[in-house]
């Protein structure tokens, strides 16, 4: 089973790209309910990432990033390169998806996905707003198409034997 999780804040322009991609993939899955795929828009809830990933064979996370690269640049990074344990805190708001990757492995062990890929899309605008910038929207379209193809090729249902 594949789990896809979109992260980000829809009220901060390009920061919402992960949530928007996941919402579009949820619409796609409504038309293809037989695929062995779950898609979640988890916004900024890092703790939820850990719980929704539990039991998946493969996990894909989509989020925005700000690395001073060209806006719309897509980075595909193995999850193990980004996971880190959180600093001690009294606020769950400080627990992000990268913390969820490290904590999920420790807490759930073999019931946490081993194959994790993070799609990071370089943001152009992180100010308050609801629209994606043009380069981020273009990359989001490419990611949606790529993940739809992956779902149909790798996670289609097994044929029934009569």
How would you sum up this structure, described in words?
This protein is α/β, with parallel strands linked by helices. It has a single domain, classed as 3-Layer(aba) Sandwich (Rossmann fold). Helices cover 35% and strands 21% of the residues. It contains four helices and five strands. The protein has a five-stranded mixed beta sheet, with helices on both faces. Strand 1 (2-7), helix 1 (17-31) and strand 2 form a beta-alpha-beta unit. It is globular. The two termini are 24 Å apart. The mean pLDDT is 92.
Q: What distinguishing features does this structure have?
A:
single chain, 162 residues, alpha/beta, Rossmann fold, 4 helices, 5 strands, 35% helix, 21% strand
Strand line-up of the largest beta sheet:
2-1-3-5-4
CATH class: Alpha Beta
The total beta strand count reads 5
Globally, the shape reads globular
Largest sheet, described in full?
5 strands, mixed
Task: Just name the CATH architecture.
Answer: 3-Layer(aba) Sandwich
Query: How far apart lie the N and C ends?
Result: 24 Å
Mean pLDDT: 92
Q: Tell me the helix content.
A: 25-40%
The count of domains is 1
In the CATH scheme, what's the topology name? Rossmann fold
Extract low-pLDDT stretches. none
Q: What does the radius of gyration come to? A: 16 Å
Kindly name the structural category. Answer: alpha/beta
Provide the CATH superfamily. Answer: HybD-like
Content of β-strand: 15-25%
* Discrete helix count: 4
């Amino acid at each position: 089973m594949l789990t896809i999780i979109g992260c980000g804040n829809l009220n901060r322009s390009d920061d919402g790209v992960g949530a928007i991609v996941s919402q579009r993939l949820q619409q796609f899955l409504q038309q293809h309910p037989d695929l062995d795929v779950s898609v979640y828009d988890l916004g900024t809830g890092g703790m939820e990432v850990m719980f929704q990933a539990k039991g998946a064979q493969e996990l894909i996370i989509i989020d925005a990033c700000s690395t001073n690269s060209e806006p719309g640049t897509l980075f595909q990074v193995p999850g193990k390169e980004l996971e880190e344990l959180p600093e001690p805190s009294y606020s769950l708001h400080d627990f992000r998806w990268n913390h969820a990757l490290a904590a999920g492995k420790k807490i759930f062990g073999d019931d946490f996905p081993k194959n994790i890929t993070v799609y990071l899309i370089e943001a152009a605008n992180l100010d308050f707003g609801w629209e994606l910038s043009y380069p981020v929207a273009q990359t989001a379209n490419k990611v949606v198409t790529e993940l739809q193809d992956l779902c149909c090729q790798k996670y289609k249902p097994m044929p029934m034997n009569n």
